[in-house]
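Case study: Oligosaccharyltransferase complex subunit.
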Amino acid sequence: MPYYNVWTGDDTKKAVLSSLVPFGAAAGAVTVFYKDSECVKWWEKIEKPKWAPKDLRLYSALDILTLSPLGYASYLVYKNGGGFDYTDTTVAMGLYGANLAFAVATLPIVKKRNHKCLFFNTALVHLTALGAAYAFYQIDKRAGYLVLPYALWTGFYTALTYSINRLNSQNETKTDMDFVIEKLLFFQIQPPNVNIKRPWFLEIPSARFVAIAALCSYAMFTAGIVYNVINEPPSVGSTVDERGISRVVPVMPHRVNGQYIMEGVLASFLFTLGGLGFIILDWVSGTDPTWTKNGRVGWLIFALTAVAIGFFGSRSLMHMKMPGYLS
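Here is what the predicted structure looks like once written out:
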């Protein structure tokens, strides 16, 4: 397993960029949760064990604080583990990616108000966090230590959601797990009731701003911004034809895991355009009485056109990269 002791300015940029992924996911999820007043009311009203902290801001702060270091830890593993050419590095990064996916899935589950599903999803988050911490530690000890607080916090979450599921289920009584947590773990330890106040210059962004920010971040990451920063590919390629004339190659052929910068921008545009089409379709299909017939039909045509362009354009782009794709 290679270990690179030299840390350059380029590594710093890549590490900062990698750190933005989990931080952005945590901050975005917290913002969306607080914007949904029904979710906040549901969380405050459900029966929770006595040892559970009452202040929602404590949960939010610890979510962001424990999740944020994972991006830097993942880059340490990627750099010192030799990249995806090594199996253990690939496994570690796969566990990290799976953990982020399960963590992001927590928000829609909370919106569904399903106690049982929330517990199982939180358990998966905790298990993948433990696996990532162990795999990271085997490659870079610093990375393993950075993931450890998050693994412990998700373990607490798992115990909490388990107790919530049992307390809010019909015809259920407290179990041995509740007794262990309440009588042993928190017999002498009292959870702090931290009174965290929001700074005066910070305001909760509007739903429209969050939607636009999510769409822009989706466009950036589907454009391959992380790949471009790490591998620094050219904007376009070039080749010499049989007559000795240099020609521009806009798409990197026969490489699904490689791209030119402009190729990624084009793919991102097609993906985002198609996704925007589905968003507009959902918007138009609502029961808003202010819609006029012509306005609804116009937006419907635009949405269907955007979906069609995104689909067929992406398919054509894949045919240029892989001529035998889906043939």
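For the exam, be able to explain this: The mean pLDDT is 82.
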